[in-house]
Amino acid sequence: MSAFSPAAVPQTGTIRLGLIGDNIAASSSPRLHVLAGLQNGRTVTYDRLVPREMGMEFDALFAHVAEDGYRGVNVTYPYKERAAAKVQVDDPLVRAIGAVNTVIFEDGKARGFNTDYSGFIAAYRAVRGDVAPGPVLMIGAGGVGKAVAFGLIALGLAEIRIADRDVAKADALAEALKAVRPELVTRTGPEAAELAAGASGLINCTPVGMVGYGGTPLERMHMAGAAWVFDAVYTPVDTPFLKDAEAEGLTIISGYELFFGQGVDAWAIFTGLPLDHGRLRQDLLKPE
């Protein structure tokens, strides 16, 4: 997470937050931030902001929230890269990633951060500790894919295969990664199945498997020989991709852990207020 320290939120009044994205009806982000507020005796509103449902293009909606009293917003699929072009990004690593998922409005400026990056690193280390990733197949080179790929660099990545139907996007990400780690071995292509053989880690950074997006990004037959798997999707937590991986005996890193990690890091950026992470986890598991 960035070392940025926001100005203290006012001690009274509602903290107004939101999430800009498509297909976010099942997101648990509103509940996470409301519960984080309750730990601090604060009222938090956290709005789901879907451009098409609001009759706005992304650019117009972003301008609206910037001017309408929001403390900050999270940004999710498919707008993270577009958001990065609209904000001040102080962290050179986040500039290299080229995608932001957390924006704070302060002092007349919109500042962008990427807590997917920090959230993924925390999720990986919680399950695999200091074990290096090994060769990784990552499916999807969009906003979350960029953050996860740079997270893998921090975890000791030596080889990555990037599958995306837009091969130019995969190639651009591979070049950005090699600029940070010149010795990195990269392969790219449009089909995940053709890049899977010999991969130790299998990662889904597409919306495939999410509520509203059926299917799996990689069939079980192509998982043989891998050691671990991560799915950025967390609605549902048990995606077909993860179910197949579990049946193959792979170590599972759930997208829920990325959701939780990016959420608590975003809360720190939005407010600077403390959190009891264990209590927040327990509260999120309780029926609404």
Give structural attributes.
288 residues; alpha/beta; five-stranded mixed sheet; globular
Number of helices: 10
Q: Give me the side-by-side strand order of the main sheet.
A: 8-7-6-9-10-11
Largest sheet: 6 strands, parallel
By secondary-structure content and strand pairing, the structural class works out as: alpha/beta
Helix content: 25-40%
Q: State the low-pLDDT regions, or none.
A: none
Helix-strand sequence: EHEHEHHEEHEHEHEEEHEHH
Head-to-tail CA distance between termini: 29 Å
| Mean pLDDT over the full residue set | 95
Q: Which overall shape is indicated by the principal axes computed on the Cα atoms? A: globular
Tell me the strand percentage band: 15-25%
How many DSSP E strands?
Answer: 11
Based on CA atoms alone, the radius of gyration comes out at 18 Å
Could you write a compact summary of the structure shown?
It catalyses: shikimate + NADP(+) = 3-dehydroshikimate + NADPH + H(+). The protein has 288 residues and is α/β, with parallel strands linked by helices.
